[in-house]
Design a protein that fits this description.
By secondary structure, the protein is an all-alpha fold. Helix content is 70%, strand content 0%. One of its GO terms (molecular function) is amino acid transmembrane transporter activity.
């Protein structure tokens, strides 16, 4: 660990109580990336984005989001290989900009990862209830949705978060094996949906491909395509989880870039194909439902296949929630290691090497959010928090290239100034496409973070 402190610029801790197990390889990282990425973005938010913003041009929205993520992904790959420590964007900012910017980034990542897991859990609940209804099983309305959705608490969403938290508290290797198996099933089912759906397409549903603007910015037209890209950008959040796992890789300088870029390329191809099939099966205005993929399968008329797809969506959402919770636990671990949070959050179990306290607190917080907040609000909050973090990643690459030009870089982002600059510009453009109330929620969250830093984090970090 002492050598790690020299090479990464972040403080190492003595003793094994703060050392995470290094058990992950490149295939495991790609599985983590796919598990985190292919979830609520494709199984839930695609319907909202098509019905309210982009129309049949939803696939174009995914392409725009993927281009922005490509620039950011190259920057992530450089930093993850150069600073293979848990904490992702937080750790990179801590190493390059210092304590206060690092705290803001870490606080923003709480918004990104924990709320992302909550969003996925709400989507999981929608598909689970839809599948149960096929067998005549229904929850009371009071336990089937958040207060804003006509209920009192979304009990299935709470339950899946707590179950996955228990799994993550056991060991990274066990969670990785479960994730890998579920990801294989998920990708197979998505390919089956694309293949079967392509045989039943109605090409007339793609015309006009970009619907005329409805008179408001972001409601169809090209502004709608960009707002749709900002909303479905949530679908690309997961690849960042690969960076949070760099500190648990056997060969992070080699495996982290492969995991980041590989998972991003695979998910982009799947997303564009799935969006095209989805809008070619169902009129885009009818896709504003909690389970749009299930609705599309129902139009084909294959009831057994519909059951398989719903089960596949549940698998996809499970892995997405699992990896989001995993990523947030590692963010808390890194922040506690630097003194911003209580020391208990950076202690790991002596046998499993999992950060048990960190994972437990994140699980309880996420379960509360999933049970009480509607999915529409959650999705937009995650998108803006993620885009802000991505801007900071690109900025960190530019800063370190100038301040530490001779530092070893096992992977170098090509044309760094251009790549990072386009990454920042792309993310800012998508952020500008989001509604004003989403910006207000982000500002309030950051103000709360500033208050915690002033009252606790600054003094603790200085002492540590």
């Amino acid at each position: 660990m002492a050598e790690s402190a020299v090479t990464t610029g972040v403080r190492a801790e003595p003793g094994q109580s703060r050392a995470l197990a290094r058990s992950l390889t490149a295939p495991g990282l790609i599985a983590i990336g796919l598990g985190a990425t292919i979830g609520a973005g494709i199984f839930v938010l695609t319907g909202t984005a098509a019905a309210q913003y982009a129309g049949p041009a939803l696939s174009l929205s995914f392409v725009i989001g993927a281009i922005a993520c490509g620039f950011v992904g190259l920057c992530y790959a450089e930093l993850a290989a150069m600073i293979p420590e848990p904490g992702s964007t937080y750790t990179y900012t801590r190493a390059s900009l210092g304590r206060f910017p690092a705290w803001l980034v870490g606080w923003d990542l709480v918004l990104e990862f924990a709320v992302a897991a909550a969003t996925v859990a709400v989507g999981w609940s929608g598909y689970a209830q839809s599948l149960a209804a096929d067998f005549g099983l229904r929850l009371p309305a009071s336990l089937a949705g958040a207060p804003g959705d006509g209920g009192l608490v979304n009990l299935p969403a709470v339950g899946i978060v707590l179950l996955l938290t228990a799994l993550l508290m056991r060991a990274t290797r066990e969670a990785s094996l479960v994730n890998g198996l579920l990801v294989g099933c998920k990708v197979a089912i998505i390919l089956a949906f694309v293949g079967v759906g392509a045989a039943h397409l109605k090409p007339e549903l793609w015309h006009p491909f970009v619907p005329d603007n409805a008179g408001l910015f972001g409601t169809y037209g090209w502004s709608g395509v960009f707002r749709g890209a900002a909303v479905v950008f949530f679908a690309f959040v997961g690849f960042e989880t690969v960076a949070t796992a760099a500190g648990e890789c056997r060969a992070p300088q080699r495996d982290a870039p492969v995991g980041l870029i590989g998972s991003l390329l695979i998910t982009t191809v799947l997303y564009v194909a799935m969006a095209a099939v989805l809008t070619g099966l169902v009129p885009y205005r009818d896709l504003d439902v909690a389970d749009p993929v299930a609705k599309a399968v129902d139009t084909i008329g294959l009831s057994r296949f519909a059951t398989v797809i719903k089960a596949g969506a549940l698998i996809g959402l499970t892995t997405s929630a699992l990896t989001a919770l995993y990523g947030q636990g590692r963010i808390f671990f890194a922040m506690a290691r630097d003194g911003f949070l209580p020391e208990a959050f950076c202690r790991v179990h002596p046998v499993t090497r999992a950060p048990v306290a960190s994972q437990l607190v994140i699980g309880l917080f996420t379960a509360a959010v999933a049970g009480l907040v509607p999915i529409g609000i959650l999705g937009e909050i995650v998108s803006i928090g993620t885009l802000l973090a991505f801007c900071l990643v690109c900025a960190t690459v530019l800063i370190l290239r100038r301040t530490e030009p001779d530092r070893p870089r096992p992977f170098r982002a090509p044309a760094a100034a251009l790549t990072a600059g386009l990454g920042i510009l792309s993310c800012l453009t998508l952020m500008a496409s989001l509604p004003a109330e989403t910006w207000i929620r982000l500002a309030l969250w950051l103000v709360l973070g500033l208050a915690i830093y002033a009252g606790y984090g600054r003094r603790r970090a200085r002492l540590s």
